[in-house]
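Z., the sequence and structure:
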Amino acid sequence: MVEGPRNLHELLSRLEEKSQQTPSDLNLLRKLGRLHLRNGAVAAAVRVFQRILAQVPDDLATSVDLALGQARLGQIEEARFLLERALEVDPHSAPVLVALSQVCELANDTEGQVTFLMRAANAAPHRPEIRLTLGEILRRHADFAGAIRQYEAALATHPHLETARFALASLLIRQNRLNEAMEHLRAIVRQNPSAHDAHYNLGHCLFRQKKWELATASFVAAQKGMKDHPQLHYQLALCWFHLKDWDRAIVHMERFAALLPDSFEAKLALGDLYQQTGELDLAREVFASLVDTFPQRPEPFIRLAGICRDLQRFDEAGQVLRRLFHHHPGHIEGHRLQADLHFARGQWKAALDEYRNTLLMNENYLPGRRGVAAVFRQTGQAAEEFAALQKVAALAPDDVDVLLRLGELEKTLGLPGSLDRFRKITQLAPGSLQAKEASYYLRHAPRAA
């Protein structure tokens, strides 16, 4: 029994020997050249392919192999010349056109790369992979419309090509064409229920459309193959939150934060969810940890101080704000919270001064304007409150509470009432308590007149 070659190097040695003995065996030479390529010996492969072409000058397959080998060796012009000569033999040869595209890529000639690939795609509609490659190149160069056309053309001849559908859906999502994207994603999951990426992207589209229940179903389907996908857990948490299933929302947000243990944003999102679901003590722990770990970020200081204020831990809130101002002096939200603490303690002058400090930083800062008006209301200064609320209304013209209070103050101060203001309340919030009170003023306006 003849012993076979033990490794690639030994096989190459044997084939080299045979090729010298039978130099006209073209199949043997092709095999030898491709083995040299597999072994990384590009120069040796080029020499073998040249031996073949010396015998069969119009062999297109060998012309392609030789040209690509030359291009890898930096012989770009020689490769291009060889392939252009091959095109003269067969102008519609897809392999030659694809090879010319690859040579252009090595030469950093993007326009040529795209041109030859487009010709190859048109010459070989039965090879959708060419259009997929072309679409990917166009996408990388931000020609999204061109990429979309290529994926659509691939699907016209191969409607079950999942890769093309997924790539097309991804681009449509990027262009905010969500309904079109969802049609392709639904087609994918109908054909392949285990396409977890398609389930996830379908859920993402529904999530952006605020269709929480439908998005949840898609995310749950995606989760079967993407159990540790952080963004999936984050979006699922928000879906459950909007569906008022607090427990599931918290479970997924905790998982999201656990998957990204060093992420400031993940921990902040977890604390925010604790706060929104009424778990203030848990939120306080998360934000306190973030304050210690990320003192360069002001957000956890602001959230922690706000929670301490809501829990009426005023001294603790004051300590947090002092730390905030140490790291972030003059932070406008910090001064607003400082004013809130004075307000909660009934320290009206101190509160007014702090709210006014925020307005020195930004005269259109709405919380500061509201705070000034609130202090005047608490201290019974109706005229000053009315003037302050007018400035609030200029910044928040659709705030029905402000509109109603302005109407009440007009009556208190004996000013001419604005019926348009009350009518606007009934239009903005029909059925609300504010609308009912506005309707009362509207009904009694003629009698008062």
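Confidence is low (pLDDT under 50) at residues 1-5. Residues 433-448 form the longest helix (16 residues).

Let me know what you think.
H.
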